[in-house]
Amino acid sequence: GQNIDQPTEMTATEGAIVQINCTYQTSGFNGLFWYQQHAGEAPTFLSYNVLDGLEEKGRFSSFLSRSKGYSYLLLKELQMKDSASYLCVLPGYKLSFGAGTTVTVRA
Amino acid sequence: EAQVTQNPRYLITVTGKKLTVTCSQNMNHEYMSWYRQDPGLGLRQIYYSMNVEVTDKGDVPEGYKVSRKEKRNFPLILESPSPNQTSLYFCASSLSGGNYGYTFGSGTRLTVV
Questions:
Q1: Which chain A residues are Cβ-neighbours of B31 within 8 angstroms?
Q2: What are the mean pLDDT values of chain A's consecutive 10-residue runs (107 residues total)?
Q3: pLDDT at position B100, please?
Q4: Residue B42 · residue A97 · CB < 8 Å
Q5: Hey, are the CB atoms on B43 and A87 less than 8 Å from each other?
Q6: How confident is the model at residue B29 (pLDDT cuts 50, 70, 90)?
Q7: Which of A54, A85, A83 is nearest to A70 (CA)?
Q8: Other CB atoms within 10 A of residue B59 CB
Q9: Strands (E), chain B
Q10: Do B41 and A33 touch (CB under 8 A)?
Q11: Tell me: the pLDDT tens digits for B60-87?
């Protein structure tokens, strides 16, 4: 089976940095996705990590440590439009989602 | 434009009246799946399909049916909807599941009264 844990909520100020942690347990690792979901909308792809280390993509970066079963998503230079839920996802035919971390960006 | 199209976007129905939510993708993806999203519970998989005529249960299949007669279409059928199936539903597709990214439809908000 698969298990994913991530914090429920985080709040940060516009322009700041926020780090969303995700710990997971899985019997077969095939990489880890991060998706962004605005309220009532479809999830959209942010990043995919399959090897250990940091992947940087503009203001968003994602880190993976397979030995620790740990990943984080780093959001830099926060903007109001980054207020959303961020989902840690283990791929597979039976796709597993974390419950999501709701990030609220305040002016 | 590559996309997953779900219809309808909003639906209000009565208990016991059969309904179908359609899902279609134009990317020639082999893998398609359905999810429901409820407050505090996140996204939970209902059914998935690895290819035409190949489907399997996800985590919450009770009360739902699916079919995959063509590669592009994967409808979700509620034979006798009940109020506990009131939820936000998403369809998604992927090249072959596994470690390929997933493209989601815009969602269907279903209310069963």
A1: 93
A2: 90 97 91 94 94 95 96 98 96 85 97
A3: 74
A4: yes
A5: yes
A6: very high
A7: A54
A8: 14
A9: 4-7, 10-13, 19-25, 31-38, 42-51, 54-57, 65-66, 76-78, 87-94, 103-104, 108-112
A10: no
A11: 999 999 999 999 999 999 999 999 999 9
Q: Which residue from A41, A50, A99 is facing B42, i.e. has the nearest CB? A: A99
CA distance A19 to A34: 13
CA distance A107 to chain B (A): 26
What pLDDT shows up at residue B1? 84
Q: Return the number of other C-beta atoms located less than 10 Å from residue B21's C-beta.
A: 20
Interface A-B: count of C-beta contacts within 8 A = 60
Q: Which residue of B has its CA nearest to A90?
A: B99
Chain A CA closest to residue B5: A42
CB atoms within 10 A of CB A54: 11
CB contact (8 A) between residue A41 and residue B107? yes
Average pLDDT over chain A reads: 94
Six token digits for residue B100: 């390929």
The total number of residues shown for chain B amounts to 113
Min Cα–Cα distance to chain A from B3, Å: 12
Per-residue confidence (pLDDT) for residue B98, from 0 to 100: 65
